[in-house]
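Hi F.,

I've been meaning to write this up properly since the lab meeting, where we talked about keeping a consistent format for the predictions we share between groups. The idea is simple: the sequence comes first, exactly as it goes in, then the structure tokens exactly as they come out, then a line or two of notes. No screenshots and no reformatting. I'm using this chain as the first example so we have something concrete to point to.
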Amino acid sequence: MAKLYTTYLLRLERLESHRELLAIDEQLFRMEVGRYERGEISPGDFLKAKRAWLLKQQELRDLEMEL
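Output, unedited:
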């Protein structure tokens, strides 16, 4: 039982770490949105950034589902 609880706590810690990283990634993505709106990056580069952002969001949802 203690091992199961320890595993749970480690997963919670990992989840919190991912949330913190995702918050930073969100800020970076918003910067890319601004660059795209100002015409500083191509649509292709913007879509790559958007895809990366969506994949990171999905990773977090997957971790949440593991709990």
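Notes:
The chain has a mean pLDDT of 96.
The longest helix spans residues 2-37.

If this format works for you, I'll send the rest the same way.

G.
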